[in-house]
Design goal:
two-stranded antiparallel ribbon, globular, 269 residues, 10 helices, Lysozyme-like
């Protein structure tokens, strides 16, 4: 399969360092400034966001039992779906998206179920992805083995965000829903807000797009604000420490062996 441009791997490792350095520059500040203050700084509710479970959106049964691991996740990994930036923000559209992702992951990728744990639609609806992800999140003790990021599927929670964010930022409501969901996950699993990453931090991919990736420092801060806790460590600066990801990550950035985001035309209405 030919990958869409938004999912071509970066030309070199150095190009990722250049992108990361932009996070402390004017581009990231301008992107974050476009978000309403209410979206960034609102208080976190212990009840968490409403999450539409697999049964509620009509998920198919997994093709084999979903594996529940004994460990808690160590981090959150943010993705984009690389689908159209639609203006249909309805619940119906969000459900259609969840069904299309599951169909593609099971029928085209050959996976047992949806690859990621949760999905956030452009209309700010949050949906369960892989079966049992919501129940295990609510328990706060274990996680479901997933298929969203090579090398990280047993130690991370994967969140897909509907849309393509290579040149556009996500809608403010979607970003706020993502921040709410991340805060809820951090709260239940005891994760610091600093443990939020992009797919490209671990695999050779452009996901979650330059614009959404540039928002991750702001997302970490907004999640910390929701939780009422400071970031537990400073933002990484690759210019000062170019081996940061080799030290921090557990996988050494393996190449992506499978594609978890791209949906071929025709699977969505």
């Amino acid at each position: 399969m030919t990958l869409p441009a938004s999912h071509q791997p970066p030309a070199t490792a150095a190009s990722r360092y250049t992108r990361r350095s932009v996070l402390t520059g004017a581009f990231a500040l301008a992107t974050a400034a476009a978000l309403p203050v209410a979206a960034a700084g609102r208080a976190y509710s212990a009840a968490g966001p409403e999450i539409i479970g697999c049964a509620a959106w009509g998920a198919r049964a997994a093709s084999e039992p979903v594996v529940v691991l004994a460990n808690r996740p160590e981090r959150i990994i943010v993705h984009h779906t690389a689908t159209a930036n639609v203006t249909d923000y309805s619940r119906q559209r969000a459900i259609a998206l969840a069904r299309a992702i599951q169909t593609y992951h099971m029928d085209a990728q050959g996976w047992i179920d949806t690859g990621q744990h949760f999905t956030v639609s452009r209309g700010a609806f949050v949906l369960e992805g892989r079966h049992n992800s919501l129940a295990e999140l609510n328990s706060g003790r274990r996680q479901v083995r997933a298929a969203h990021c090579v090398g990280q599927n047993t130690v991370s929670i994967g969140i897909e965000n509907e849309g393509t964010y290579t040149s556009q930022a996500p809608p403010a409501a979607q970003y706020a829903a993502l921040a709410d969901l991340c805060a809820h996950i951090c709260d239940h699993y005891g994760l610091p807000a600093s443990e939020i990453y992009g797919h490209r931090d671990f695999n050779s991919t452009a996901c979650p797009g330059d614009r959404l990736y540039a928002l991750l420092p702001a997302l970490r801060r907004d999640v910390a604000t929701r939780l009422g806790t400071p970031l537990s460590e400073p933002e990484p600066n690759p210019d000062e420490d170019p081996v940061w990801d080799l030290v921090r990550q557990t996988t050494g950035r393996p190449p992506a062996a499978t594609l978890g985001e791209y949906l071929p035309a025709g699977l969505l209405p």
